[in-house]
Amino acid sequence: MTFSEKIPVVIIACKVMQSMLEQLIPDQLLQQAVFMDYGLHRVPAKMTQELQDTIDDLNDPSLVVLGYGLCGNGLDGIMAGKHTLLIPKVDDCIAILLGSRQAYIREFSAVPGTYYLSKGWLESGSHPLKEYEEYAQKFGAEEAAWIMDQQYRNYDRLAMVAHSQSDLEKYRPQALEVARYCEKWGMRYEEILGSDRYVRRLLEIIDQPDQSDNEFVIVPPGGKIRQEMFWDFQVQPRK
Amino acid sequence: MSEIYEQLATGILEGNVPKIPELVQKALDDGLKADDILSNGLVVGMNEVGVRFKSGAMFIPEVLKSAQAMHAGQEVLRQLLAESGSAFSGKIVLGTVKGDLHDIGKNLVGMLCEGAGFEVIDLGFNVEPEKFTEAIKNHQPDIVGMSALLTTTMRAMGYTIKAIEEAGLRDKVKVMVGGAPVDSDFAERIGADGYGHNAVSGSELAKKLIGAA
């Protein structure tokens, strides 16, 4: 008996993953899926509360698949209640877009000062160019430029990530517009072809949870998500 | 009397950069002490900025403006604070940890500590554990403050404390940590001496850690 046959499977995911999930997950799962607003991670405590409320609203004990990473520790402290939680063991959605933790570690170590762009963020206007335009309207161009400098001057790279070549090509013009704006800080533009591997693995685990491994975190009923579950190894305290 | 403190705090909250130095000067002319103007007016306002930012009621642009106003106010008081000897004679090394490029919060802590009289050595961002230990050897600070914005990089705080321990320097400094994903549990877990909820808490903690608060 698999999860999907035994108990309902409910996916609660950030909108950034919506198009990827819509392409890959079966319709019956998609129907129950809940896609939450972008940017909840900006106030992690709010993200925790909103996700908790959404989980608690589910009537029947379910396998709740969270389409999130730790996301600024927004997941930390969320209680499973009567449900079982299944989460990719990642810090944020970049690893999911890239297809694996290894890919994430590879990119992160190579260029820590990377601002990642995705189709979802471009569509929602979550990128430096849009931010500048909003500030310019509100505070004037000079002030806006200064504010942007404070936030972005340390970055080295603007990386557009998509899990298919066709998406990369489709969104390239928009990404390049953002890249042109970001040139002032010496940010170079790169495209990274991600992969749907992580999502496909997630679907496998939904079907056969006993196949779960170091790429996923499972929290049983009554349990609580703790950030330590997402670390590779423990940091020993001094005392 | 307290009205001017309120006006100062409000001016900070509103990021009113031109008004703050005027208000500070007025407060001084009214006979108020530089220390009190700083603590009861400017710092109170900046602390409220931190609280609102953390709860999502204020955003980076407004925080940056408030910081500018704070800086302007501190500049008026700088000489007076130094003369009156009320400044804290402490030395603090600050840095954003390895892999992390975010430095607005750290810069704010630096500004506030400097305004309080600390000597601030800012190592910048993406600072390797070895660079922290080197700075401790070279500068003999009282405090080391580390900042991180990402769950991916906050773990480097633990490694940095380990590096400080391995260099035999852990007992020579107090370590404080802060940043959006950090909390007091994490600080305790990695053996830090304290955690700053926002930039003002960080600077107040620094004062406490050198026993000067």
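qc> The CA atoms of residues 110 and 120 of chain B lie 6 Å apart.
qc> done
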